[in-house]
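Our preliminary data section would be incomplete without showing what the modeling component actually yields. Below, a chain of 263 amino acids is followed by its predicted structure, encoded as tokens that our downstream tools consume directly.
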Amino acid sequence: MSTAEMFTPILPMFRLDGRTALITGAGAGIGAAIAAALAEAGAEVVLVSLVRNELEAVAAQIAAAGGRATVCECDVTDATAVRALIRELPQLDIVVNNAGTNIPEPFLEVTDAHLDFMSNLNVRATFVVSQASVRKMLEDPARRGRGGVVINVSSQMGHIGSPSRTVYCMNKHAIEGLTKAMAVELAAAGIRVNSIGPTFVDTPLVRKIVDSPEKLDFLVSKIPMGHMAKVEDIAAAAVYLASPAAAMVTGTCVLVDGGWTAQ
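Predicted structure:
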């Protein structure tokens, strides 16, 4: 046997042909980039967010590139609505919990309204979407041996502490715990659960927060790679975790943080 015959080709393992992936918060930024990347890898993508015109714009770009996308306008904090949406899908193989938010403010200034809003979107909605998605995956009799994938878009803040981000850090630490617990419980069913921990990503939303040269310089000084991440950096990690190339990867976080948490 030649050396070439001893090894299984790797690149085809990154393909997602025949899979259906649901992405929350898919109307812009990281969510839109992940949806486009999964579609490029062959998945049919279901785009979920509150803003239909944003979803339609993303779906049109995916279609123009030869991909397949369905638009679903839904508030993921509405448990009844999102469960119904997922229940009615013909098929579901991959779910990406990307919807989330942050309201940076000092700990002593956090209001009950902000605490509830962030926790409902960042944690409770992730749990509900994941639970409904896993139920959908397990009801498919053809799934035996095929498994399923849950990807939680967390943050480097799920591994460290940071001033003026107490609620966000709390939420993302919770997501890291949820990821590990789900991974252990669902491994026997062939469902892999992982998270992605981005650093600050260069999106319009982040640019609103990092709104001065001084803030940008300070932020970049904390990233050993010397610059913010791009949405494509996060999308590439999602393709890997969603694909058969990551068949033995579960219960972990892929930190796409330019070295921030290594310090």
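The domain at 15-202+231-256 is CATH 3.40.50.720 (Rossmann fold). The beta strands are 20-24, 44-49, 68-73, 94-97, 148-153, 191-198, 253-256. Preliminary results of this kind motivate Aim 1 of the renewal.
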